[in-house]
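Task card 7
Instruction: Convert sequence to C-alpha cells.
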Amino acid sequence: MTLLIVWHSRTGGARTMAEAAAHGACGEDGATVRLLPAEEAGGDDLLAADGYLFAAPENLAALSGAMKDFFDRSYYAVLDRIQGRPYASLICAGSDGSNAARQIARIATGWRLKPIADPLIVCTHAQTPEAILARKRISSDALDRCREIGATMAAGLSLGIF
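Output:
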C-alpha cells in the first residue's frame, strides 16, 4: 500500500509538517511512503497511490498557488478513478487556515475521497511582513500530531481499514 504525501511550502512550515507525517508513516509495516513537492506531483502519482496526505500553507486566505496548480493539473486526469480512497490535510497558516482546508475538502469531495481526520491546521501567528516571509518553526506538539496522522494513514492502509 502506498501513501502519497504532496506538499508545497515557501517558508518551510508545510514542508516540515509533511516530513513529520512521512516519518510517522514510515514506521508502519506494509506501507510505502512517497513524499513529493506539489510542483513535481501529478495525476499518475495519485493513481499509483492508495491514500493521500496534502500539506500546504494558506496564503492570503486561500490554498497556496503551487498546491492549487497541482490540483488543477491533476483533477480531470484522475476524476472517477480514485473515488473512495482516504485522505487527510495539513495546513500551515498565519492566523486561520480554514479557507485552505475548505478548498482541499471541496476538491476531495469532487474526487469522492474519504476524509480520515479533520484537517490539522497549525497557526504560526505570523502577522508582519517580516514574520510572514521568515522560515517557519513548527512546535514539537504540532509535529507530533503530524507524525500521528501519517502513522494512522499508513496503518489504516496496511490493515485495509481505509
